[in-house]
Specification:
Layout (H helix, E strand, L loop, with lengths): L1 H14 L2 E6 L7 H17 L2 E6 L1 H4 L6 H18 L7 E4 L5 H10 L4 H5 L2 H12 L6 H4 L1 H10 L5 E3 L5 H17 L9 E3 L34 H9 L16 H13 L2 H12 L5 H28 L1 H29 L7
Parallel strand pairs: 1-2, 2-3, 4-5
Bound molecules: adenosine monophosphate.
The site of adenosine monophosphate (AMP) has 18 residues, from helix 2.
Length: 352
């Protein structure tokens, strides 16, 4: 009896934790975004009272998109959120730049974020390398990206952040900034946020060509499966995924590209199907062509209906506008409260 009561109480307190996450409108989403982030958003909106999911348009400016492109991708991302199952009745959906409190808190946070630590962030170093190679400049927005991301989370004093594994270092920085602010203001104002996934760990969905993580802006567009890929395109990409010439000894360890293929299969296929191909690999009878055909079929079952819903939703601009108008109002209310409290703690409430 006591145990049941404690359990109910625990679930009640968990449901009160605030959730925040978003994605950048830098192109159509790929299945790494779906499995690393969006799928969790959809489940979390059922279990947590306060969920904020946003379109990170400021973040996308670090890579200088064309105005027309940005405008389209913001609408496409909103349509994608809704097509994947986000419900404006259950979660607050908004556009980052609709909250003027975000740049204001970002300015304040920049005062206790240090150049040296920002320069050491692995994603920044990687971006510097790739942008310099392609002759692009590196702007200050790119350097302070983790500060803005911390503000995105802390503007609602959120604790849980559903993200992919690539965001771990950024979440760690958000924790540091929360701690730093609390220490400076002798308060416990900001919670220390944590990355969240319903899987055992935060996940990384691999690219199809063995080039690391799947990414919407990869140089090789065939390395990613996009939620907007037509059925034929999606199947073709999977059939062309990198493999090797097959196992030569029973129970031999899988090379990375083959492990990647199994990882993708674990995301969309049933346990029986995965077991079947695992055994076939272990006794060297596997035919990668058959495995890829099965994987393509199971992936198509997931992606096809989402793609068709995105196509419908993107045409309904009136509905999309209403979703972000209502979401923006709710999000601004929460953000204004947080900002006011933070400024008071910093002594910036000069005349009441
Ligand atoms: P972005 O498009 O970079 O704004 O990413 C949006 C979300 O998708 C973030 O939570 C990322 O961690 C997640 N994500 C992006 N690519 C992958 C991937 N290949 N595997 C897992 N999560 C990913």
């Amino acid at each position: 009896m006591i145990r049941t009561y404690c359990c109910v109480l625990f679930l009640y307190f968990c449901s009160m934790e605030t959730v925040v996450s978003g994605a950048r409108p830098t192109g159509g989403l790929q299945i790494g975004n779906y499995f690393g982030a969006i799928r969790n958003f959809v489940q979390m909106q059922e279990e947590f009272d306060k969920c904020y999911f946003f379109v990170a348009d400021y973040h996308s400016l670090t890579t200088h998109p064309e105005a027309k492109e940005l405008n389209y991708h913001v609408k496409e991302l909103l349509a994608t959120y809704l097509a994947c199952g986000l419900d404006p009745e259950k979660a607050t959906i908004y556009i980052q730049s609709h909250l003027p409190q975000i740049p204001e808190l970002y300015l304040l946070f920049n005062m206790f974020a240090y150049k040296g630590e920002l320069e050491k962030v692995p994603t920044f170093k990687e971006k510097v390398r790739s942008q310099t190679e392609s002759g692009k400049s590196v702007n200050a927005g790119l350097l302070t990206y983790p500060v803005l991301m911390s503000v995105d989370i802390l503007i609602h004093r959120a604790l849980k952040v559903p993200v992919g594994k690539d965001q771990l270092a950024h979440i760690e920085m958000a924790r540091d900034y929360a701690k730093r602010f609390n220490y400076m203001t002798k308060s416990e104002y900001f919670p220390e946020p944590v990355g969240f996934s319903y899987t055992k760990e935060l996940i990384k969905v691999p690219a199809l060509d063995g080039s690391g993580k799947m990414s919407k802006s990869a140089a090789n567009p065939n390395s990613a499966i996009f939620l907007m890929d037509e059925d034929k395109v999606l199947r073709k990409k999977i059939m062309r995924a990198t493999t090797d010439s097959g196992p030569t000894e029973e129970n031999q360890a899988k090379p990375e590209v083959i492990e990647n293929l199994f990882d993708l299969m674990r995301l969309v296929s049933t346990e029986d199907v995965v077991c079947h191909y695992e055994s076939a690999y272990n006794d060297c009878s596997i035919r990668y062509g058959d495995m890829k055909k099965q994987l393509a079929e199971d992936m198509a079952q997931l992606v096809n209906p989402i793609r068709e819903r995105i196509k419908d939703l993107i045409k309904d601009e009136t509905y999309l506008a209403k979703v972000v108008k209502d979401g923006g109002e709710q999000a601004r209310e929460s953000a204004a409260k947080t900002l006011k409290g933070a400024k008071e703690l910093m002594g910036m409430n000069y005349f009441g």
